[in-house]
Amino acid sequence: MSVTDFLLLAGGGFLAGIVNSVAGGGTFLSFAAMIACGLNALEANATSAVAITPSNLATVAAYRNEVKSHWREFIPFAVIGVIGGAIGAGLLIWLGNAGFKPLVPWLLLFATLLFAFSGPIRKFVEPWSVRAETGVRIAAYGLMVVVSIYGGFFGAGIGFVILAALLILEGGDYHKANAIRITIAFLIQAVAAVLLIFGGLVHWPHAIVTMISASVGGYCGVGWARMLPDKIVRAVVVAIGAALTVIFFVRP
Fold it and tell me: Are the beta carbons of 40 and 101 closer than 8 angstroms?
């Protein structure tokens, strides 16, 4: 690994950990760093997923008070995350790089649009967050299942969709919902990471450098999550996502 690769991975991992703790979307950064270091799309996705997993655990630790206070409410979300993550990772391994690469620009476009239109989506969700109708809650749980599968398969952009569903289910308590979001993201990626490791898709030198830097960023980022406007973070994530989308659409 060259010095340039090391710096790209360390910087991308640290920023990914911070962004994931604030608003989600850090996968854009770690994935981009992996691609810049020469990994193919499947290897970059798998290695990034494994590397980011401990940073999510570090952020869960930083939210430990919320987790302790509401641990019973985490149980159904944990079950959904574990099952969905396993299904998504299984699909990724089954497709292989030849099947996955054509999907990458579309997955990036989807994730980028989620972030770009996060404001209108959140305004749409807010009225539902004060309701408790059975149909609304079932739809929110159904969305969680789909997002969990997507998270095990690719992962970019899942944080915001999970948070939107949780704000419906949890009545608008942001920090409680954010703590659950981080926990679900960790479980999804932890299960997916195990399957991807056994699938032989992970480049360990790249993963270890990113893992350490992302864990530091994830733990440090929680304090900033409580005071940093997510509009700033989201604008950066959207710009990076848009650039990656264009690159993958135009490259052979």
Answer: yes
With contact defined as beta carbons under 8 Å apart, do 34 and 48 qualify? yes
Which residues are CB-neighbours of 135 under 8 A, at least 6 positions away?
A: none
| pLDDT (tens digit per residue) in 30-75 | 888 898 888 888 888 888 888 887 776 766 776 677 767 766 777 8
Tokens representing residue 199 in the block: 């699938």
pLDDT of res. 226: 57
Q: Which pLDDT score, from 0 to 100, does residue 154 have?
A: 81
In 3D space, the residue among 8, 24, 1, 9 whose CA is nearest the CA of residue 237 turns out to be 24
d(C-alpha 16, C-alpha 10), whole Å: 10
Q: What is the pTM of this model?
A: 0.74
- At 40, is the secondary structure helix, strand, or coil? coil
Sequence-separated (6 or more) residues with CB below 8 Å from residue 127: none
Determine the pLDDT at residue 87.
Answer: 92
DSSP 170: T
Distance CA 34, CA 48 (A): 7
Instruction: Give the separation between CA 57 and CA 228, rounded to whole angstroms.
Output: 21
Q: Are 111 and 162 in contact (CB under 8 A)?
A: no
Domain tally for the chain?
A: 1
Angstrom distance (rounded) from CA 185 to CA 175: 15
* Domain residue limits at 232: 3-250
Query: Is the Cβ–Cβ distance between 29 and 242 less than 8 Å?
Result: no
